Amino acid sequence: MPPRATPSERQKRLGAELRKMRLAAQVPTEYAAGLLGIDRTKISNIESGVRVITPDRLRTLACNYDCHDQAYVDALADMATGRTRDWWDAYRGQVPAALMDIAELEWHAKRVRAGLAMHVPGLLQTDAYARTLFAAALPPLSKAEVELRVALRLQRQQVLHRENPVGYVGYVHEAALHVEFGGVKVMRAQLDRLCELSEQENIDVRVIPFRAGAFPGAGQAVIYAEGPVPQLDTVELDSAHGPEFLHGQSQLDKYRAHLDWMETASLPSADSRDFIHAIASRL
Fold first, then answer.
1. Res 32 pLDDT > 90
2. Which residue, 275, 124, 125, 279, is CA-closest to 207?
3. Using an 8 Å Cβ cutoff, are 102 and 223 in contact?
4. For residue 235, what is the DSSP state?
């Protein structure tokens, strides 16, 4: 197959894992290329996500790299399986590629944990609330661009309601429940929606009250997507210049501890729901 012009974050991650595996085995690119009967430059392209690798060829490399973690190899082979067009591909060329990467990350996750301090997590937002957030972007987005982003965000939410829904834990700081994005009517509807969603078996909404005091991360928005095996976990951070994806072991450890702190500081699920109801009733 021809090289990809712009590999997705998932495709780049697959290549990065193959490179990590090869380096751990101290195998040179020339030897890896010989195993597959290809030019050494194609190994570099595979490891950067630019070139496709089949599951069979991936297993050949894993075997010769002396990787004996079968669950890990199976998960990588699944990532290498040729895919058909997915729902987020309909937005290709219309929204930044990184936004589709988030949708793909959530779609393939085993569980998602999200921690936010200043606004409600994207997978739990109403359309009006999301529209307010995107309309406040700098530089300003056109009305059409705002609507495309809102549509993508709402479609991302299907991972919570599909036949085999993703498990989801959202840690929301009390501050986010008081910022009236879109005004009182929009915010009240958003808080009601939070309470409604928190009743679903696969969704856990936890509030971190002001009285919990200091918290790590200075309010940074964090998504931790658990992969089919721990080695394939991914952290996504929101920033002013767009999403950032991390998967180094020290980074995973750091943000897992970050969310564990939020778990400890947050109210239990039922108490969180009552807390949100009380704020909504005062609006």
1. yes
2. 275
3. yes
4. E
